[in-house]
């Protein structure tokens, strides 16, 4: 099968666009069908708002579990890109085989552990007596599809890193379309409520997983999944590189969980559930920013990894510039939407004017720093794409620590309503630090040959 993109010689601006746009669109669609879930749930007659709060509690847990897919997928795909850049197809094939085994084992283990701990997790993560039944109903069914969700997301990275961004996008579109069609059927036609939303999501993930694995086992893929040549040293290196995106996603959700807990603590019985519902809607809007932005920066990692392996520093620099510009354009558009017409987004979830007024205000505050956030994503995902895990993890964790500090200090000193300022403060500060570090170290990194043997992955 002819490759969609030539990572060796294609014009860099066109190459970045062709890899970034399908990945960005795939992530946007992925967020959209997550929002469709919440939209239908929020409009369930009589229980919509409280059911939405319950599913909002599940959101961080679901994404925390999903971050394991990036631990392996984004951990292994840069290594595979580097090997392809070195023209070492055998080593690339060995990396893919080890990642498939590793992700399958982790998926099965996480399913069992999460099902055993789900009741405790929901209470720890902010469920109240009113929201627990809805959260428990959703998460129980969702967890049964964990293997399909993780394999679909994680193995899709190995399609994209071979230059097949459109194929990767189709896998997400299949799941999205299935979910959008099945949601109203299970929620309203079969009267299953939040359980119906979870069933629709699991079936959609199964469809995406089947498409991804069919491609990677077929002759269409230049490097296919094989069995054997398993090496614990390869798996360790994958986990080390994947630790950065894993921690980014995992800590993002730990921070959201912390926000939910703080909201319940300081909001009390009177404000807690209402603020939690508003935060769920705000976080849904932020997913429309961060997921497509992450699609731009992670979808183009293969360019950086490939050219790092091929020892082409000038192509790396050109790619980084185009990635940053594309990210800034996207976040600027989303900033304008957030500050001009956020009410149209809020109305999707609720028509309650008290909720609408508070949530519109919160979205405007929460999104103040999303334009510089593009620089943060470009730098961190860029280092990850070249296998420079230590720098990526350090910069990511710095941002999380600022956010975590704000989440506990701001409500205690200024009041619970001001908790929405935690996001823009962390966005501005972390972006400034990350850009500074990038210019200080990038030349040393990209002019240094990767310390990797050619015969062993």
TrEMBL record:
CDD domains in the record: MATE_MepA_like
Which topology term describes how it sits in the membrane? Multi-pass membrane protein
User: What GO CC annotations are associated with the protein?
Assistant: plasma membrane
Which compartment or compartments is the protein found in?
Answer: Cell membrane
The family note in this entry says:
Belongs to the multi antimicrobial extrusion (MATE) (TC 2.A.66.1) family. MepA subfamily.
Tell me if Hydrolase is a UniProt keyword of this record: no
Q: Which organism is it from?
A: Hungatella effluvii
Which parts of the chain span the membrane according to its record?
Answer: 15-35, 50-74, 95-117, 137-160, 172-191, 197-217, 238-262, 274-300, 321-341, 361-380, 401-422, 428-446
Know the name of this protein?
Multidrug export protein MepA
Keywords, in A-Z order: Antibiotic resistance, Cell membrane, Membrane, Transmembrane, Transmembrane helix, Transport
| GO process annotations (BP) | response to antibiotic
What's one GO MF term for it?
A: antiporter activity
